[in-house]
Amino acid sequence: MSVANAPIDDRPAAVYRLWAGDGALLYVGSSYDPEERCKQHRPRPWWPRATGRTDEWYDTRAEAFAAEYTAIWREDPQCNVWGTRAYAAQAPRKGRRSYLMWTGKRDVWPADLDQLKPVLVAYDVAAASPDSVPAELVERGEEIAARLAAAVHGLSWDGRRRYIWEQRRRTARHLRTDFLDPCCLAQVMAVANARLLALPHLFDEAAP
C-alpha cells in the first residue's frame, strides 16, 4: 500500500499488481516508478512467490491513489494489509466512525466501503497538498481553521486537542447540509486540519 501523505504532483503514476505463478493476486500498490518501488518489496516473505507484474497508468498520482484503494478493496490481494476487507473487519469502530462523519449513515456494510474509500482518498490527497484543492473549498477550510484556532486560546494542550477533535466532527456533520458530495466535505476538512497543524501555538507544547 502506498503512503497516502507522501508529496503529490501531476506526473503520471501507475497502479501495479504483483501476481503469483498460479495466477493469484499477491499485492496492489501505486508509484511513479513501479520498477523501483518493487525493489522495496523484495525483503517481504511473500516476494519469492511473485512471478509477474502488470502496470495500469494514470495521468496523476491522485488518480492512481483512488484506483489503488478501490482495487485493494474489490480485488482483495493476498499480501496487502491496509485497505483490505480483513483489515476493515479488524477495526469496525473506526470504520463506522469515519463512515458516519463523511456520509451521515450509521450502519456500515462491507459494500458501503466502496463509497467511503474515494472520500478517504480525497481527504489524504488534500491533506498532502492543500494547494491542489479548489479555491472555494480552500477558503471554507481556512475559515473553519481560523474559527477553531481562535476558540482554543487559553486552553491547556490536552484541552485544545479534545476541543478541536470534537469540533471537527461537529463541523463535518454541519457541512453535510452544504455539500452533496462527501469528497468535497473531506477536502474542506483536510484543508482545515492542515492549516490548524501549521499554527505553532496550537500544538507546540509537549503533551503532559
Describe this structure in words.
With 208 residues, the chain is mostly helical. It folds into two domains: 13-90, GIY-YIG endonuclease, CATH 3.40.1440; 101-203, no CATH class. 53% of the residues lie in helices and 12% in strands. The chain has nine helices and three strands. It has helices spanning 34-39, 61-75, 85-90, 92-103, 113-128, 135-151, 157-175, 182-197, 200-203; strands spanning 13-20, 25-31, 50-58. It has a three-stranded antiparallel sheet with strand order 2-1-3. A hairpin with a 4-residue loop joins strand 1 (13-20) and strand 2. Helix 5 runs parallel beside helix 8 (182-197). The protein is elongated, with a radius of gyration of 19 Å. The two termini are 34 Å apart. Residues 3-8 and 203-208 have low confidence and may be disordered.
Quick gist of this model?
This protein has nine helices and three strands. It is mainly alpha-helical and 208 residues long.
How many helices?
9
Question: How would you sum up the global shape?
Answer: elongated
Strand content: 5-15%
H/E topology pattern: EEHEHHHHHHHH
- Helix fraction, binned, reads 40-55%
Structural class by helix and strand composition: mainly alpha
Q: What is the terminal separation in angstroms? A: 34 Å
What is the alpha-carbon Rg in Å?
19 Å
Summarize this structure as a short list of keywords or feature phrases.
about 210 residues; mainly alpha; GIY-YIG endonuclease; 2 domains; three-stranded antiparallel β-sheet; about 10% strand; elongated; disordered C terminus
